[in-house]
Design goal:
The structure is a homodimer. By secondary structure, chain A is of the alpha/beta class. Chain A has helices at about 1-10, 30-50, 70-90, 135-150, 160-165, 165-170, 170-185, 250-260, 260-265, 280-290, 305-315, 325, 340-345, 355-370, 370-375, 375-390, 405-415, and strands at about 65, 95-100, 105-110, 115-120, 120-125, 155, 195, 200-205, 210, 215, 225, 235-240, 245-250, 270, 295-300, 330-335, 355, 390. In chain A, the strands form six sheets. Chain A has a six-stranded mixed β-sheet with strand order 11-8-14-13-15-16. Chains A, B: Its cofactor is Mg(2+).
Amino acid sequence: MADKRKRRRSELNPEDEAQLPFKNKLKADSFILQILKELSDSSAVSSSSSSKTLDDLGLSSSCREVTDLSLSSVQATIESVILKIARSILSGNGFAFDVPSRSAANQLYVPELDRIVLKDKTALRPYANISTVRKSTITTRILQLVHQLCIKNIHVTKRDLFYTDVKLFQDQTQSDSVLDDVSCILGCTRSSLNVIAAEKGVVVGRLIFSDNGDMIDCTKMGMGGKAIPPNIDRVGDMQSDALFILLVEKDAAYIRLAEDRFYNRFPCIIVTAKGQPDVATRLFLRKMKMELKLPVLALVDSDPYGLKILSVYGCGSKNMSYDSANLTTPDIKWLGIRPSDLDKYKIPEQCRLPMTEQDIKTGKDLLEEDFVKKNPGWVEELTLMVKTKQKAEIQALSSFGFQYLSEVYLPLKLQQKDWL
Amino acid sequence: MADKRKRRRSELNPEDEAQLPFKNKLKADSFILQILKELSDSSAVSSSSSSKTLDDLGLSSSCREVTDLSLSSVQATIESVILKIARSILSGNGFAFDVPSRSAANQLYVPELDRIVLKDKTALRPYANISTVRKSTITTRILQLVHQLCIKNIHVTKRDLFYTDVKLFQDQTQSDSVLDDVSCILGCTRSSLNVIAAEKGVVVGRLIFSDNGDMIDCTKMGMGGKAIPPNIDRVGDMQSDALFILLVEKDAAYIRLAEDRFYNRFPCIIVTAKGQPDVATRLFLRKMKMELKLPVLALVDSDPYGLKILSVYGCGSKNMSYDSANLTTPDIKWLGIRPSDLDKYKIPEQCRLPMTEQDIKTGKDLLEEDFVKKNPGWVEELTLMVKTKQKAEIQALSSFGFQYLSEVYLPLKLQQKDWL
């Protein structure tokens, strides 16, 4: 019976070992584990030495950054802002907020830090001016609401915040935008304000951490994994015996790796935001990187958006540049799927997709970005993508069998240290 | 100091107890818990008695339903389908699949079952016909791929399946559609085929279950909760001391209830699919309802889509009607936000939104649906909504303070048995 089953498999199954490209190049797991140990060790060294700050670069007076503040500090800072305003009113000078500008012209990419930061331009937002009276009123109201959150020690979403005063805010973009202003005014991160975004990410693998006081063991989360908590301030006590963090763009690849328990064969932590990175997942990834000092390898689609997603994790997004120091994870390696992999791994022509005009334009725009330029390997790959006008999803590897990703492609990539 | 803090709160805080509508109507929790116990007991009785089948209704010959099959049964069924075809070819009759029709004309709402089912019309899909040769080839290929999944005992996504033969399938809608056909041909659920959808839902509260062999305690999942596993067949051993299941439409309300640990005050299990219900969450909800025999109370937006989402959980969606018996959860109660709540709870005018033309049309269409008609309470509410042309999100309750939902609205609803 066992024989029959085996024979039948080899007749029907197009995923035969012999036919799987490069499977014969794979060395023993112990060899690959040795490579991962070296990577992990070097990451621990570089993490502890290379974390430069704006101060080190002499930029702290010309650039603005926010930090995590405790709830009581946020409360005290709000109170002092309001007291200052009260004094200004009493001395006959009226009332105005001094608000850091978040416009594109006030943004700067700092290569030494490898992220986008906010410069120091500010704008006055006086109450006694027809063009700013609404915005200064909204600012005051948001400060008051955040003050309440501090006192109650609860978290709310941006949507909740909007609904507390629809008459004033009118639409949510207005309260959202002023919320970012308030972060800049107080000099604290948005998560310090206890205003959170909806959670989207999941994590599975060799990680233990506490979520709101409960200890979570991510090796015991089955196939579904653990939902990443929306409030990073209640996450702590991270422990891990992983050698690296595998950052995955999409759900489908995550599910494959979780079911195959890839993290047992190669000790790692697998994390995904299921597409566009949300704030909670970005904070969680950074916290893992910082506390565990592990290298981060990224598995994204081979298209301009894959690289863009990688860059948001790595360097930040422009609309939250004031918070880039807390949201970004330095030194993420681009493991795959890279444009050069398409030929190298013989991805069949019909599994590649032609890039649209928009794709090509996005790719060319990315080539102009500083954070791409500073990495020659990335420039080379992106140039190849724009030239061949071909893209491919991670799932394209399924053309060699459903488990090609976890059983051949990823192990081989690791064995060959094939990251950039 | 404590005094000062207290005083300061009552000065600044617009959420003062006295101002909160209906807070004074709330009775002690013990009173509400008694009501929940009665609800839970009656649900346990009705769950075990009222589960009628097509057979009971004399419809089993004119309607078609699929069941959960074990992997080895799926494998054996595929083999017998293929053998039958081989015999047909050898006897000179060529080869054709007999495929159940999934068109709208072949759908039926059965009031006794309170769900949509598929009637018994089938269509021949011959290979030797120019109009069906592609589809019959795709069907054969999907059968072969599913056969492989059975042998390997792994799960893949629909996207993976598509990528195994892009040349043949051309685009994913084609492989997806034939996958549903294959479920009908084999008479098994899509989850029996080991083809899964991306996970989206989360669960938190008084539930313990096993996910792929790991025991998960959902009271110890912090604020993030547990991601609902994509493959229900590896979920088991459900235990709970909850009195009801709270089904929440959106993430923001879920986060509020999870942070406030609402399930500790009123023992319950809180679950959300974060918007449109996905297959994994629907299967998970049904499994909880069936195994734990708990009542399900739904908290959705007061708009036509809220009711539509409720109906998908309850009665199924048309494009998967063949699987409605396994995907639907009977007897879900509409707790809120109901159109009559807007006035009853004095939701401020500016937190209500005018319905668009499209909203009103969707509302009117729903009024024609059998599953709405059979519930007079629902008809009344929906008629009110269409008449007032007003809608409101769950978050509109935040206008009375961030915790109004968990501290006043929901407890009062439960106390008044205010569900339909």
